[in-house]
Structure formats: C-alpha cells, structure tokens
Amino acid sequence: MIPAPKWWRRRARWLAPLAYMSILARPAWAAQTLQAFQESAGSVAMEAEHYDAKTPLGGHDWTPQVAIVGHSGGSLQAMPNSGASVNSGYVGKVAELVYNVQFSTTGTYYVWLRGYGPSNADDTVHTGIDSSGPASCDRLIFLPLGAWVWSRNTMDNVPATLTVQTPGFHTFHIWMREDGFIVDKVLLTTSSSATAPTGFGPPESPRITLGSDTTVPTITGLTVGPTARPYIGDTVTFTTTVTDPDPSPAEYRYLLDSAEVRPWSTSATFAWTAGSSPVGARTLQVQVRDDATQVPAIRNLTVVVLRKPVMPPP
To answer: Which residue from 220, 297, 283, 210 is spatially nearest to 252, judged by alpha carbons?
Structure first.
C-alpha cells in the first residue's frame, strides 16, 4: 500500500476530531426512531431517571441521587443545592426534564409525583405539558419533609392538573423550583381520587416506537382578510402558512376564544362570520400538526368585531 502524503496525514489529524464532534452534535432522533411512554386507560407512569431529554439551565442540573435510599430504582436531584428558588418565569430558564408520552385518552390529568424534600427550602417543583407551564400544575409541594411521599398538592392548595386536548404525542415537563428537591417517579391519571398511590406506585408504563419524524411544523404566517376589524355579519378568511420538512400533509385546527370552531382539517384556510356576541376583541388560535403523533404548533391572532355605525336620519 502506498502511504498517504504528509499533507493528507496532517489534514486527517485535525479532521478526525471534527468528524467525531459532528456525530456527537446530531440530535438523537437523527439515528433512531422516536420512543414514548404509552398512556392506557387514562394513566401513565414514568420513572424520573428515564427521561427523554434533560437540559441544565441557570447553573443547575438534574443529577442522579444516591445518598438517600428508598427510591424506586433511581432518582434525580436538582443540584447544586445552593438555596436557589424560581417561582415564576421558569420555562426555558431552569433545569428541565422532558418525557415523551403517547396519549389515547384526552381530558384532565392529575399530576402525581413521588418526591423527597430534604428541608422546607427544597420541597417544591414545577411541572407542565408541551413546553408550557400552566398555573394548574406548578409549585407542587411535598410534605412531610425528610420522607418519600406521593403528592399532587400545590402551594395554591389545589390538586395539580394538566389538560391533554388532542390524542397523540405530547411531552410532560419537570422544572426546578427549589434546588435540592429530589424526584423519583411520575404518575399522570384521569382519576380524580385524592388517595395517593402506595409504595412505589403502579409499574412503569411501556414504551412504544412512534417513528422518526420529530419535527413540529413551523407556523410562518397567520393572516386575516379582507380586514381584521370586521363588522357584525361580515365574513373574514383566516389563512395559515407553515414550513415542515416532513412530507405528510399538515392539518389545521381553529379555535375562537379557546372554543373549537373548525376541527382538524388539511385546509389551511377558514372562513368565519362575525357574530353579534360578544362585540370587541376576539382571539383566534390556529393549531398545526403534520400527523397524529405531533405536538401542535400554535399561533394566536386578534380580531376586533365592530358594530356598524348607525347613520342619522336625513
């Protein structure tokens, strides 16, 4: 074999690390299909350490916890425990855990976590769905201190709940509120029973393979014409434009003031006639997905319904 020239050997020495770095930089879904926990009969259970994504932020990270025994196989602690607390504005700002879930049952789910609060400065956590942190399931608190407990209680003295509006793929999120808190297991259930799970709770739900498409459509435009200030009785047309590398057709759903006015359809346009009640600002929302396993992309638009002016008699 003829040896490679010296210039190529020198080039190969600095190309090899770059090639290795490019492999590390690839997202996980580029090399494997998407996995998700399977909800069944209104319930899904997940071990905290079996997350699908973990993001260290704000100088903190969810790290494996081994000092305190009694967890169901593994647990994660928000570290370092430096006395930090983030009560609001936490999405995208603090350490996060993400769990993929394939839902077949829609509706209200109660959020149960098995956790451990070492002290009253380490006993709360935030949760949410689809990258949002609704107030209905933030600030979960775990008492008594110094013990593994199942809790759905919030600092607002109401049970933690989230809403699954559509069947298919969604993401469940845990965000640090107080560093030092330890999470062991998650249970999402449609049962409103206030009786906490016992022991380690139900066994972990199985994982299923959904496919390799993990790209949510991007909404590039939402327009209304011929005007965004229609009079009562006028018809206006909403049009949504998207970009999506996935070849499957996009589906669009329109809601007005949070109520569905056009169910999922492949039509990107929606004609709406302004009614007489209420008059004033109305919020239109479009949700876009490219198949049943995608979290919808969402965009809002405001229209203002006006009364036609009354002309004075001649």
So the answer is: 297
Residue 110 exposed, middle or buried by CB count within 10 Å (0-12, 13-18, 19+) = buried
Domain of 147: which CATH number? Answer: 2.60.120.1620
In this prediction, residue 188 carries a pLDDT of 98
- Amino acid 311: pLDDT: 64
Q: Closest by alpha carbon to 223, among 235, 241, 243, 238?
A: 238
Q: Tell if the pTM clears 0.70, that is, is over it.
A: no
pLDDT given at position 19: 32
Q: What is the tally of structural domains in the chain?
A: 2
Q: Which of 185, 211, 237 is the last residue in one of the domains?
A: 211
Domain boundary among 211, 242, 267: 211
CB neighbours of residue 133 within 10 Å: 21
Name residues of the chain where pLDDT drops below 50: 1-32, 292
With CA atoms as reference, report the closest residue to 53 among 88, 85, 12, 101. 101
pLDDT in the model for residue 116: 98
Residue 99 burial (CB count, 10 A): 21
pLDDT recorded at residue 266: 87
